[in-house]
Amino acid sequence: MSCSSNVIHLQLPASGLAQRAPVHLLPCEIEHNGPAQITEYFSATVKDHKHEQTVSFRGRGLKGKEISCPQHYTGLVLKEVNKPGSDEEDRTVRVSFAFDKLTYWNLETPPSSDDTIVMAMDWPELAEAIQGPVN
């Protein structure tokens, strides 16, 4: 059995600071790779009520909630610079944006603590508790 180790190279912005942008996690798959005129075609008119946000996207009701990244963490939006020709080639990604919070959306289901993204945001604290020193 052979073991291949691929390297992912991360390109940081020239200034060292990534531009901040609002991030929305939508419950859909968009079959498009490449730039999109998001500000022209996606502007969420959000209605807040009872700690829940609602919006309509292409005629479907979405319910969402804004959540923060875990303490001492920053989210990054990455873009692949050059797609490798095979799985064994190294990859290079560039930081497009950074974020400290994001809004996630469910299709007609109210946000809850059982949502996958909410549980993922709890993982660093849980991992620290498991791996940290025992007193």
From TrEMBL:
Gene3D superfamilies membership: 2.40.128.680
Matching CDD domains: RNase_H2-C (cd09271)
Biological processes per GO annotation: RNA catabolic process
Domain of life: Eukaryota
GO cellular component, one term: ribonuclease H2 complex
Protein name: Uncharacterized protein
Species per Swiss-Prot/TrEMBL record: Mugilogobius chulae
